[in-house]
Specification:
Strand 2 and strand 3 form a beta hairpin. This protein folds into four domains: 75 residues, OB fold (Dihydrolipoamide Acetyltransferase, E2P); 105 residues, no CATH class; 188 residues, P-loop containing nucleotide triphosphate hydrolases (Rossmann fold), CATH 3.40.50.300; 155 residues, 3-Layer(aba) Sandwich (Rossmann fold). The protein is globular. By secondary structure, it is α/β, with parallel strands linked by helices. The two termini are 50 Å apart. The strands form four sheets. A seven-stranded parallel sheet has the order 10-11-9-12-13-8-14, with helices on both faces. The protein has a six-stranded parallel sheet with strand order 15-20-19-16-18-17, with helices on both faces. A five-stranded mixed sheet has the order 1-2-3-6-5, with no helix packed on it.
Amino acid sequence: MRSYTFLTRTRKIVVSLIVTDGSSKIKVQWFNRPDLKKKFAIGKDYIFTGTVSYYRGYVFINPLYEEVDSEHIYTEGIIPVYPLTAGLKLWELRRAVIKAWEICKDCIEEVIPLNTREYFGILEKKEALKQLHFPVSMEVIKRAKRTLIFEEALRIIYTVKKKKIEKRDVGKMFKRVDISETFVRNLPFKLTENQNKVISEINTDLLSGKQMRRLLHGDVGAGKTVVAMYTVLRAIENGFQAAIMAPTEVLAFQHYMKWKEVMENLGIRISLLTGSTGRKEAESIVSELEIGDMDIVVGTHALISDRVNFSKLGLVVIDEQHRFGVIHRLRLVKKGLYPHLLVMSATPIPRTLMLTLYGDLDVSFIKELPQGRKLIKTSIDYMSKIPEIMKFVLSHIQKGEQAYFIAPVIEENETLKSVNDIYEIARGYFEESKIGILHGRLNPKERESVMQRFVNNQISILIATTVIEVGVDVKNASVMLIFHPERFGLSQLHQLRGRIGRGNIESYCILVVDKYLKDETWERLTFFARTPDGFLLSEKDLEIRGPGIREGLKQHGTSRLEFLNIIRDKDIIEKVSNYVEELLIRGDKEIIDGLERMINKKKNVFLEAG
């Protein structure tokens, strides 16, 4: 072995060795390690491990090394690669891991029984941790990783499913039925089989004497709001108040305007409370809620304000609940004494997310669309075809129908068509008086005015941002242009598309793209165009975007995901869910106590770290 040093053109020191095993030679180099200049002795035996590169011959770059007569903690077997920070070397961290293992290995508690470990193909917790840091084979590493994935899934699913059975011994019984039946009889349409089934499930909850906590899950336009209003009336006819919380002022206003006349005709008092409600009007509403002179309040986050109190809150309805955190939900629920809870989502939730994030709720589905509803025809076209596209839109406007033009941004942008850009384009084809603009920067009065004019068909073209993504229900709208659709996720595109086709009119969604798109982007938009099923789209969206946290696992009393991948680990999630169900039914005290200790240890670690 011989060694030498030299400087690179950027003045970095390189320590270089020529080493031999007696039959061949190889070059070994370290960059910026001047401390190694006198580390190696000619004639001594060393072990080097790392990646071999090729540059004018084979060369080891920055390998780990040990003397042959040493412990071989850095070079023998499979060596884990740890994430490092500035100033921390791999061998320093490896030395610390070895020391930590010796100190902690006998403190690791096993809570999973042998038969369960064998069924899931996992190791003992202690063995799994050992094999991750000191593995004997790649196959064992896979089992060790599966063990930690299983434990994380178990911890999350157990936490949410335990919540499902807690505090269910208290709840208001809604026995009286009169106004709600009148409401259903007077509807201008017949409820679908799915809607009737969900109403039956809700009524069972309301008569059980236990608090209802139910997720009403259905695709866009499936008729969830009608079921929600039926449930609201069940609370009112039994002498309680109801609160309906929506994520945006536009949606809250839509709910209020849609049901105001219906409720008033039934002799029921309803009000709208948002952050934009005038001070005097807000004070009056808050006062009426507190003394019991207001039956229903529709609102936004304003409802969870400390100033809002209820005389007798019996039902909380949360629309598009994925836009609220669990904390928001709890703050509103706590304004009553165990009020019933109905949360709604029109964004299809993949089953894996349902099991991990929403396992504390009973779930009802509305999968069928109302009678007469037609599938929306979706196509992709280029910006260069704007004249032909506008003529197509005009042909529908001339029949008295309406259209949405969706922009990704409000203000001028070098690469994207903004609300103002699209307005200038539309002016060339439609009367200016027939064009409206809606986005989040308009003041509430302007937003209400524009939305009401569109609902009344005084505006034919509504140019908007995603502020209309949820809840907006205009049955006469039959055409939607979405500019730069590549800027939106599949679930968001599906929500936008759901704003049209809400009546019996043939409806069309056109994705307006630039000429040049990446292959994967084109494939994603093509998949959207040919897929009307929101559940399939949400699965694809999850696959493309990754699991993320969606609503935030932290709000469910768990940490961010460390090992579990909601897409990759579907089979584990399904099996763990079934296992936890059986565990809670059996009430296996030993395992449950062990899980509680495991969860509490995890919480304490994060509290200390935070």
